[in-house]
Design brief:
By secondary structure, the protein is mainly beta. 13% of the residues lie in helices and 38% in strands. It has 2 domains: 2-46 and 86-145, no CATH class; 197-443, Sandwich (Immunoglobulin-like), CATH 2.60.40.150. The strands form 5 sheets. Strands 4, 7, 11, 14, 15, 18, 19, 22 and 23 form a 9-stranded mixed β-sheet that branches. Strands 1-21-20-16-17 form a 5-stranded mixed β-sheet, with no helix packed on it. The protein is globular and about 60 Å long.
């Protein structure tokens, strides 16, 4: 009962405040950032998702074997038009539930929110409707699991077009009706000409609070499926530029074949993600089942937020996004006083086909970010990767090179790069298969629109 009361206070009351503020132009509380913060302000202090500290406290330990660590010297695609297009299929708005089988042969009821029932409802009536739905579905929506659910905004689904309707301030301020990709590039302040220095440190272009996404995993799919063809997108919208910054972006014409429990390859972000107050995560991912898109199954659909109040810096946490026909786990961390690292890898002098796996560790966190995993048969450049790193900490890159996916002769080459405000660092790696040149470019986030 206490859990449901907290749910009621932390989700539905702020939504009514959003609704009231959006309809009152003279109300100073209509600022989206203040309104979004009411999700946490109206409830008891939320739990902070942080890994437990070691006991006794320990210093930073190298994750690399002795002799492995080395000190280095000093394609995002456009959005899927069909997925992004606002839909208006004429269906009546309503709240409905769909049963989804889980691994324990139970059925989880997923609450699907449209724009509300026909007709105008008062705030009290809307609250009562949402409250009743929460009481009815809370226990079966989120059965006991080892991963906490991520709260999804009501009225944020793409398939029925509800995310494009309504006057909620978060929709306006994050410009969700605009489907263009962010115009801000990475490395925009890697070599600025207006620096001001204090004891050798630039004080004109300062580190910023940033959000780092470490992994996206397919947590659940329908029980009768061994693997699925997955497509769609996951993107962020931040205060720096509310346009889409894709983390995952897969076309329906070229879906990825993936099994439950596998990582979904991250093709982004295009540039660093700012976490100033709140950052919106928007998603619409589907499973291809037939020739026509209308027959495809919806994996996840909606929008959620990550804020700087309910998270601790340099602490990993994982949230589960539940959907109609499965779930996705997303692991992230807030990194204060952080800068943007752009990692570029070029492979040359290829002597024979080999497998290459590139991983990244940032800011002292013991969680690998997978940057690349595949076969190399000719000279080529890999897709550019953008990672956040806390200033003056070490970012570690691990290159695993082998003759095949099951080879026991894999060699690891590990290099560390210190996070700085501006500039670039490079390292040449010689292997028996090829030469690998890695370049890391450092930049603070652009403030050109602030």
């Amino acid at each position: 009962m206490q859990t449901l009361q907290r749910l009621r206070r932390s989700i539905f009351l702020p939504l009514l405040r959003l609704r009231s503020a959006a309809s009152s132009p003279g109300n100073p509380a209509a600022s989206s950032l203040s309104l979004l913060r009411s999700f946490t302000a109206s409830a008891p202090p939320p739990p902070r998702w942080c890994l437990p500290a070691p006991d006794p406290p320990a210093g930073r330990l190298s994750r690399f074997p002795n002799g492995c660590r080395n000190m280095a010297s000093t394609r995002g695609t456009k959005g899927n038009k069909k997925l992004a297009k606002p839909a208006d299929n004429g269906e009546g708005d309503h709240v409905r539930r769909a049963s989804v089988p889980d691994g324990d042969n139970k059925h989880a009821a997923i609450l699907l929110c449209g724009e509300g029932p026909p007709g105008e409802l008062s705030d009290d009536e809307e609250f009562a409707r949402l409250e009743a739905a929460a009481y009815r579905d809370y226990d079966c929506n989120y059965p006991a699991e080892d991963v906490d659910p991520m709260h999804i905004f009501p009225y944020s689904t793409h398939r029925d077009g509800s995310i494009y309707r309504g006057e909620y301030s978060w929709k306006k301020d994050y410009r969700v009706a605009e489907r263009n990709e962010t115009w801000i590039e990475a490395m925009m302040l890697s070599d600025p000409k207006d620096c001001m220095f204090d004891n050798g440190t630039c004080i004109m272009h300062r580190p910023r609070p940033m959000l780092q996404i470490f992994s996206v995993k397919l947590a659940k799919i329908p029980m009768d499926a061994d693997s699925v063809e997955l497509y769609g997108y996951i993107a962020t919208r931040d205060v720096l530029d509310p346009l889409l910054n894709y983390i995952v972006n897969v076309s329906r014409n070229d879906p990825i074949l993936i099994k439950q429990g596998s990582l979904i390859e991250m093709t982004g972000p295009k540039r660093g993600i700012e976490l100033c107050d709140t950052t919106l995560i928007e998603y619409d991912m589907r499973m291809k089942t037939g020739k026509q898109e209308k027959d495809d199954l919806q994996l996840i659909d909606g929008a959620s937020i990550v804020d700087d109040r309910s998270t601790d810096t340099k602490c990993l946490f994982t949230k589960r996004i539940h959907g109609d026909c499965g779930a996705v786990d997303i692991t992230v961390s807030r990194l204060d006083v952080a800068v943007e690292a752009t990692i570029e890898v070029h492979v040359s002098e290829v002597r024979s086909t080999f497998n290459l796996c590139v991983g990244c560790f940032t800011s002292g966190l013991n969680q690998e970010i997978q940057l690349f995993d595949g076969a190399i048969g000719e000279s080529r450049g890999l897709r550019r990767s953008v990672v956040a790193a806390v200033i003056d900490t070490w970012m570690d890159l691990k290159f695993k090179v082998g003759s095949g996916p099951y080879s026991n002769r894999d060699a690891e080459h590990c290099y560390s790069f210190k996070a700085i405000n501006h500039g670039w660092t490079s390292q040449l790696i010689k292997t028996e298969f090829a030469s690998i040149l890695v370049k890391v470019t450092w930049s603070t986030l652009s403030m050109s629109n602030m």
